[in-house]
Amino acid sequence: MAQMTMIQAITDAMRTELKNDENVLVFGEDVGVNGGVFRATEGLQKEFGEDRVFDTPLAESGIGGLAIGLSLTGFRPVMEIQFFGFIFEVIDSVSGQLARQSFRTGGRFNAPVTIRSPFGGGVATPEMHADSLEGLVASQPGLKVVIPSTPYDAKGLLISAIKDDNPVVFLEHMKLYRSFRQEVPEGEYTIPLGKADVKREGKDLSIITYGAMVHESLKAAEVLEKEGYSVEVVDLRTIQPLDIETIIASVEKTNRAIVVQEAQKQAGIAANVVSEITERAILSLEAPVLRVAAPDTIYPFAQGENAWLPDVNDIIETAKKVLTF
C-alpha cells in the first residue's frame, strides 16, 4: 500500500477507472494541462490524452449539458464543478435532467455521471467557494451524494461512484485534501455507496457526522474519553441515501446521539438524520437528539470563518448536554 493524501487518492481513483474503462471521460475547467485548481487531475491528460481528459469553457451549464449528452451515448463522464458554490449555474442539468433521466425513460437510459466538486471551510477561500450546499442536492430524488473523510474512503467511494449507473455528486472537503496521509491500496477497490462506517466504537453516546466534522468529532471523543465517557463516531460517508441501519444500530446501543455538520443548522442533512432517529428509535433514547451546526447566516468572509465554523469545543459542549440530561 502507498501512503496518500486525499487529493492523491482521488487522482488515483480517476486514473484507475480511466485505465479500466475506455468510456470514462474526465472534464471541467482547467482539469487538463493545469491538472485542476487543486491538482486533482494532475498528469491525467498527459497519460490518457486530450480526448479522455480535457478542459471546458468557463461555463458550468455547458459542462452539465455535455455530461448529459455523453451519458446518453454510452460514456461515463466525470465532470468537475470547480467549486461547489457554482452548482447554481448547473443545477438544472444536475437536478432537473440527470436525476430524472432513468425515471423519465423507464430505465431505458441511465445517467452514469459523477459530479466531482470541492467545498468546505477553514481554508480562507473567497466568497461562494466554501459553502456547504450538500443539502441542496441531497434533497433531490434520483441523486446519490457522497462525502468522504479519509483518503482510503475517497478512492474506494469515487471508484464506486464512477461505476454507478446513476448520477453521483461526489463532494471533496478542501481542508482534507492534504491534511494527512493514510495507507491506500493500489489498483481498484470499491466501497459501497450508501454504507456508513463506524470510525470509533463507544457505548455512551453516538456522534453521527460526515466530511471534515468526522475529524473534529474524533477529537471530541478523545477528550470525552478522558472524562469517563465512551463515544461512538459514525461517519455517514454517503448522505443520500442514508445508511439508516447503521445509524439506528448505533443509537440503540448508546441510547444517546448528537448529529454534527459543518453546514448551517437550516441546511445540510442533520435535521433529516434527527427525524429518522426519532421516527425509528425514540423508545431507545434517554435524551433529546441535539445538533451541532454553523449559525443560520450567510457564510462569512475568510477573516471570520474560524469563529463561525463548528469545532471540537462545540461538539464537546453539546455532547455533555446529552450525556448529562
Automatic annotation (TrEMBL):
Membrane spanning stretches: none
Domain Transketolase-like pyrimidine-binding, first and last residues per copy: 4-179
Upper taxonomic lineage: Bacteria, Bacillati, Bacillota, Bacilli, Bacillales
Organism listed in the record: Sporosarcina highlanderae
Known cofactor(s): thiamine diphosphate
Keywords: Oxidoreductase, Thiamine pyrophosphate
Identification of the protein by name: Alpha-ketoacid dehydrogenase subunit beta
Pfam family, any one: Transket_pyr
Magnesium found in the keyword field: no
SUPFAM superfamilies attached to this UniProt entry: Thiamin diphosphate-binding fold (THDP-binding), TK C-terminal domain-like
